[in-house]
Design brief:
The structure holds two protein chains of two kinds.
Chain A: H1 8-28, E1 52-57, E2 67-72, E3 77-83, E4 89-92, E5 98-106, E6 114-122, E7 128-134, E8 147-149, E9 155-161, E10 165-171, E11 176-182, E12 186-191, E13 196-201, E14 206-211, E15 217-221, H2 228-231, E16 239-240, E17 245-249, E18 254-259, E19 265-266, E20 270-271, H3 272-275, E21 291-294, E22 300-303, E23 308-316, E24 325-332, E25 337-348, E26 352-353, E27 360-364, E28 371-375, E29 381-385, E30 392-396
Antiparallel strand pairs in A: 1-2, 1-30, 2-3, 4-5, 5-6, 6-7, 8-9, 9-10, 10-11, 12-13, 13-14, 14-15, 16-17, 17-18, 18-19, 18-20, 21-23, 22-23, 23-24, 24-25, 26-27, 27-28, 28-29
Chain B: H1 9-28, H2 33-46, H3 55-63, H4 65-71, H5 75-79, E1 97-99, E2 116-117, E3 122-128, E4 133-139, E5 141-143, E6 152-154, E7 183-186, E8 189-193
Antiparallel strand pairs in B: 1-6, 2-5, 3-4, 4-8, 5-7
Classes of the chains: A mainly beta, B alpha+beta.
Pathway (chain B): One-carbon metabolism; methylamine degradation; formaldehyde from methylamine: step 1/1
Enzyme class (chain B): oxidoreductase
EC number (chain B): 1.4.9.1
């Protein structure tokens, strides 16, 4: 309603009420100091605590608008965010001081020249400190291992598929791609130490790439230890760059403890089901058998100091490896036994843990973007961040890599 | 390739004639004239998208559903349907991950206007409950516009990790489309018989 159309009597009454309200307000606040003029400023985040985490939101419904949230998991508050365009990937340095985002944009939105980029942000100010063009990167629904940092954060590895498979090695000090390593028949990056990474291969082997100081590349392969079409290894199996520890988990639930390095060694596998007192699950040759199986997107997380592994489990047949976990099963990776079991109120596509003595566990609702924080030692739900994002797909906690 | 996938009308006509003849001969010896018409109508109603499927297979499948289910080699295949191409449980979508082009202005093997089909794809093998056969399916993405989001499915029959790219449904298959390589939706074209 426009003011001209208000009847004069009503207008007088409204103005009168407003005057009274204003007077009343002035009287009540008379004793308070007059508000000072304010300067606009920008928040700087304090150094990250073990519970300051990154959450990747792929925004499946409009992927070019992906983002990374910085979250204080103790308070359940969003501290800030940076963009991570079109199936972006992200990583946090071991000292939690820099965030890297590998992303793809087109100069005119959905058209124009394509830019594959590696952005570096100061983790406290979230200011861009480097914005580097990459030769290529793989466009794929983001998985942690499409992009990774070496143990001390001095190098970034960008998996690319254009469409031949390779890894771009980036010097994070010079902000330059130093070399492109072809990894024919292999994919993904699982860094070990500061100058090497492994990749999983189509023939069931692990390729081990060493980067010499002279720029020379060495590559070895393990013997085949799995059959991808019968029982593939989950891409987002937990690995640790610092010491080359890896737990490669297969679709059926076999865990292959691996020490990654120039010549990675894969140990005899153990079964998640047997560790929980059940019969080991069959591979794809018996696809109809319903049992507890690992599944989801970020399917597992490792608490390094306690050797405990958190795995999303659900009941289903073979080929349900992307079904969300209805429970989290916690394993001692030394005894191979399930030591705790947490039914989830909402089935989750991800599980993450922090690395401190009082670890938190994270799960999410893939449908509405709710983010759940629980006590990792008891499974007790602590807080929910309602609709934190749209498509929450993985988390990164300080010191986990 | 299924005859219905083949746009060569001359060849289709020949095949259709052959099938029609074989169908009529088969039923003529067993049933009344009225029965033939009824059965033909039933078959036509049941297989609107596959009018040219070999009749013996369609007939066998419809007369013995249990037998057909027993032949499904995967859990998805045993529950799949062959009538609604806009639903996630449609048989060809056994390993599709993403938006159904058939609900985005395209079709099961057609891209919506404003997008471009990918010349590359990954391949699945899906069981058709209608004829009891498994077919090779090329999941070709349509590219150049952002995600369509009408009916979104995540089926994972035979889906292997990205180190087996030809069997992985997470990769954006928009290489060489001449577009931004931005993913809009997925199609599922029959490219051959798998069994």
């Amino acid at each position: 309603m426009s003011l001209q159309k208000v009847p004069p009597s009503l207008l007088r009454a409204l103005l009168g009420s407003a005057a009274i309200l204003t007077m009343g307000g002035t009287a009540a606040k008379a004793a308070e100091p007059v508000l000072q003029t304010e300067q606009s400023d920008v928040i700087t985040l304090p150094p990250y605590s073990p519970h300051t985490i990154l959450v990747e939101d792929a925004v499946y419904t409009h992927n070019k608008d992906g983002r990374v949230y910085v979250v204080d998991a103790d308070s359940g508050k969003l501290l800030g965010m940076v963009q991570a365009a079109y199936n972006g990937n992200m990583a946090l340095t071991p000292d939690a001081k820099r965030i890297y985002v590998a992303e793809t944009t087109w100069e005119r939105g959905n058209r124009g020249a394509r830019n594959d980029l590696l952005a570096e942000y100061d983790a406290s100010t979230l200011k861009l400190t480097s914005d580097e063009k990459l030769p290529a990167r793989a466009l794929v629904t983001p998985k942690k291992n499409d992009f990774a940092l070496n143990a001390d954060g001095s190098r970034a590895y960008v998996y690319q598929m254009s469409p031949s498979n390779a890894v771009e090695v980036v010097d994070n000090t010079a902000h330059k791609v130093t070399q492109t390593v072809e990894i024919p028949g292999c994919a993904l990056v699982y860094p070990w130490g500061n100058s090497g990474f492994s990749s999983l291969c189509a023939d069931g082997t692990l390729a081990n790439v060493s980067l010499g100081a002279d720029g020379k590349v060495g590559m070895t392969h393990t013997a085949p230890f799995f059959e991808p079409d019968k029982d593939g290894i989950f891409e987002q199996s937990p690995t640790v760059a610092a010491d080359g520890t890896a737990y490669f988990i297969s679709y059926s639930g076999m865990v292959y403890p691996t020490k990654m390095g120039e010549n990675s060694t894969v140990e005899k596998p153990w079964s998640l089901q047997e560790g929980a007192g059940l019969k080991a699950a069959p591979d794809s040759s018996k696809p109809f058998e319903v049992t507890w199986r690992p599944g989801g997107w970020q399917i597992a997380a490792l608490h390094k100091a306690s050797h405990q592994m958190y795995v999303l489990m659900h009941k289903g047949t073979f080929w349900t490896h992307k079904d969300n976990g209805t429970e989290v099963w916690v394993y001692d990776t030394q005894t191979h036994k399930r030591i705790r079991r947490y039914p989830l109120k909402v089935a989750s596509n991800l599980v993450g843990v922090t690395q401190d003595e009082h670890p938190l566990m994270f799960t999410a609702n893939e449908d509405n973007g709710d983010f759940f924080v629980s006590d990792a030692l008891t499974g007790k739900p602590l807080r929910t961040m309602k609709a934190l994002g749209t498509s929450l797909i993985f988390t990164v906690a300080p010191g986990e890599g | 390739m299924l005859p219905s996938e083949n746009k060569n009308s001359a060849e289709q006509g020949t095949l259709f004639d052959r099938l029609t003849e074989s169908l009529l001969r088969r039923f003529a010896g067993k049933t009344s004239r009225r029965g033939v018409v009824a059965k033909l109508g039933g078959v036509a109603a049941a297989v609107p998208l596959f009018p040219l499927l070999p009749v013996s297979r369609a007939n066998a499948a419809s007369s013995s559903a249990a037998k057909a289910v027993a032949k499904a080699t995967t859990p998805f295949g045993s529950k799949a349907q062959a009538k609604d191409a806009n639903a996630c449980d449609y048989w060809r979508y056994c390993a599709i991950d993403g938006n159904l082009c058939s609900t985005c202005g395209g079709g099961v093997h057609s891209c919506p206007p404003g997008t471009a089909p990918s010349p590359t794809s990954w391949i699945g093998s899906c069981y058709n409950p209608q004829d009891g056969n498994s077919y090779m399916i090329a999941y070709r993405d349509c590219c150049g516009q952002d995600s369509c989001n009408e009916v979104t499915c995540l089926n994972t029959d035979g889906d292997q990790p990205s180190y087996r790219p030809m069997a992985n449904n997470d990769i954006i298959w928009c290489f060489g489309t001449g577009t931004s390589e931005m993913y809009n939706c997925s199609t599922a074209a029959v490219i051959g018989k798998a069994s």
